[in-house]
Amino acid sequence: MFDWLVIGAGFAGSVLAERLARVRNERVLVVDRRNHVGGAAHDHYDEAGLLVHRYGPHVFHTDDRSIVDYLSQFTEWRPYEHRVLAQVDDRLVPFPINRTTINALYGLSLDDDEAVETFFRARAEPRAEIRTFEDLIVARVGRELYETFFRDQARKEWGLDPSALDPSVVARLPVRTNEDDRYFEDAFQCMPKHGYTRMFERMLDHPNIKIMLQTDYADVRRGISFKRMIFTGSIDEFFDRRFGRLPYRSLRFEHRTIDAPRFQPAAVIEHPQTEAHTRVIEYKHLTGQEHPKTTIAYEYPSAEGEPCRPIPTPENAALFKRYEQLARATPNVWFVGRLADYRSYEMDQVVARALAAFEKIDAALGTGPKRARAIMQAS
Amino acid sequence: MFDWLVIGAGFAGSVLAERLARVRNERVLVVDRRNHVGGAAHDHYDEAGLLVHRYGPHVFHTDDRSIVDYLSQFTEWRPYEHRVLAQVDDRLVPFPINRTTINALYGLSLDDDEAVETFFRARAEPRAEIRTFEDLIVARVGRELYETFFRDQARKEWGLDPSALDPSVVARLPVRTNEDDRYFEDAFQCMPKHGYTRMFERMLDHPNIKIMLQTDYADVRRGISFKRMIFTGSIDEFFDRRFGRLPYRSLRFEHRTIDAPRFQPAAVIEHPQTEAHTRVIEYKHLTGQEHPKTTIAYEYPSAEGEPCRPIPTPENAALFKRYEQLARATPNVWFVGRLADYRSYEMDQVVARALAAFEKIDAALGTGPKRARAIMQAS
To answer: In terms of domains, do B162 and B231 share one?
Structure first.
């Protein structure tokens, strides 16, 4: 009945469904266990009418123009440069650490990159080998800044001390000597103008695409007929966890609507000194929405809940490899995305991953009769 | 695979899916050709972040407390009494016609019901038999008020002169001698506090219910296995229009967002004197949303488009009867709802219709093993 069964309506599944339906003219059934499309990037209007991200803030940024071009078929954009502050004692300072952060915390007035670099170097504790998250930070900025910004935050985030964590968990976090206070440095920093969900709806709006919600993979693996499958769920789930469960950290968000137009001066404020939550998010900064109220969220890391971040340990990598080998031996199923690849992709990375997967599939399957018809229709 | 295939995720389909899943503990697949649940009652946040009704204003009102009790499982309520004005020349007057309307239009100061009744009686043209919409109005309030408020509006609405229309098309419209300017007189007049779509999402949020969107009945009639069916689409479509198409009037809405917090003094203003649109709707009156902008809609009746209102002529009633006989002879399929019954139900009526259909089904099928389990779990 369907050419393709696509499990998961997040970025990986939706991009592949769109390409298969539009470019190859094939019939696609997209299935998601949630009651909406967009996966963890889904946004929605809450009970006060404020646009919020149910699964935590998603800030789009990329250096890859082709990803922007692809997504621009489905959305306009609203310029937004993400800025994050950290609360240290009673002070809000830029994060990642930059020149302003150092001057504010230490009552200094360092006025060029070199002075800040000298400041870091005087405190850095050189390590022969960077084996842990702790090594990485302490070797760069010293123990005091490590303890202020990273140690307790990481313990909350990962439930582990940074001395037991792979440095890759923070690899993307820069330390700056200038006054750049943007969280990301990418050339393109924008939000989908009318939200992520609207963008996904337009991506999936094609006569070849049917969408099935509130439906688990287990509900459709039998009973629905299809030729090939894209699986974007957790790879261990596909194989009934036969080697054990791939571990993820999860996040819990406590949303609160405040009866005031603004709550805090940035979209995200890190709270490295609190005991339970890691940060507070105020969505209006991201969305640009005008509204007499504002909705914020307290973010609590947790071991239980929806799978959010793969935990990068050598054991988990080895476990994933075993599943990956099974996947390679499974004909007519392609495994794509954050959960299937067990990797913490940024949004632009998962779009790139899905587009690359489509190119491979398209090359492997060649120009069937439907594909030929699609090419003729387009020309 | 499924106990029930439910075609249509509007009121009829969603209420039945909820009852079958929850009370009978049966597995239900709900299918809708749109990309959302809620049918024509669906509301959504538009690009400016304003909650609007995509398919025209839906104002909930009922005299049946049991319907309120049923729906209150899935929503809280916001009190809202619907009021409608009509623009006559450069004046806005209450509609339906009441004492204030008459005093304003005729520069009178009639101050009790009797005086207004006398006013109407002096103008009314008695008819031996009420056979048309025109008869109904002219016999009650006379030709001048008929022409001012009804004649041209009905021509736009139905594409027919009121002298060719069945009186049932306006049967619910009162003419009042007091100053009551509410559009409805029901004891319960409220809107779902967080919108219709949220109410439907909660109604359908059950592990026994799967939802398939962007999917036509024709896409699933073969290929999905199920035991029984609820069909809430157009009954002629189910039978491949073998006796011809059942005619509907349709509506087209032109939405506009205005850069001001308020556009007009009521949710709906009738425009009986304009050439194309019948009324202008401002949604914020219905939703109570606070927002610096406001979205309005111009309503244009049309012959083409989504089926909205059955056209009550004897020919159409006869055509429906032929389909209804086929339906009666179709085992394991129940036909329920506005389109399947070819009737202009109010929302509370279609909920009542669906709940009554469930009682019949439940009685007919009796206590199967799943139903027995559901009863045990509930006790």
So the answer is: no
Tell me which of A200, A211, A259 to substitute to probe the interface with B (most B C-beta atoms closer than 10 Å): A211
Indicate the pairing of strand B226-231 with strand B2-7: parallel
Say if residues B15 and B204 touch (Cβ distance below 8 Å). no
Among A3, A8, A53, CA closest to A336? A8
**CB-closest option in A51, A213, A224 to B49:** A51
ipTM reported for the complex, 2 dp? 0.88
Residue A140 and residue A6 share a domain: no
Are residues A225 and A346 located together in one domain of the fold?
yes
Give A-chain residues touching B194 at CB under 8 angstroms: 47
What residues have CB less than 8 Å from B137, skipping those under 6 apart?
B145, B146, B150, B162, B170
Considering A124, A151, A171, which residue would you say is the last residue of a domain?
A171
Domain with A89 in it? 84-171
> Is A358 among the domain residues?
yes
B342 and B222, same domain (yes or no): yes
Domain-embedded: residue B342 = yes
How far apart are the C-alpha atoms of A288 and A297, rounded to whole Å?
Answer: 16
* pLDDT one-digit tens code per residue, B304-327: 998 999 988 889 999 999 999 999
Q: What is the pLDDT of residues B348-376, one digit of tens each?
A: 999 999 999 999 999 999 877 677 676 66
Q: Chain B partners of A51 at a C-beta cutoff of 8 Å?
A: 45, 49
The Cβ of residue B248 has, within 10 Å, a number of other Cβ atoms equal to 21
Sign of CA dihedral B217, B221, B227, B231: positive
Domain count, chain A: 2
- Give the global pTM: 0.92
Q: Do A35 and B205 lie within an 8 Å CB cutoff?
A: yes
Residue B47 in contact with partner chain A when CB distance is under 8 A: yes
Whether B125 is covered by a domain: the verdict is yes
Residue of A nearest to B30 (CA): A212
Whether residue B299 is contained in a domain is answered as no
In this structure, which amino acid lies at residue A247? P
Contact A47 B194 (CB under 8 A): yes
A6 touches chain B (CB under 8 A): no
A254 confidence band (pLDDT: 50, 70, 90): very high
Are A241 and A338 in a shared domain? yes
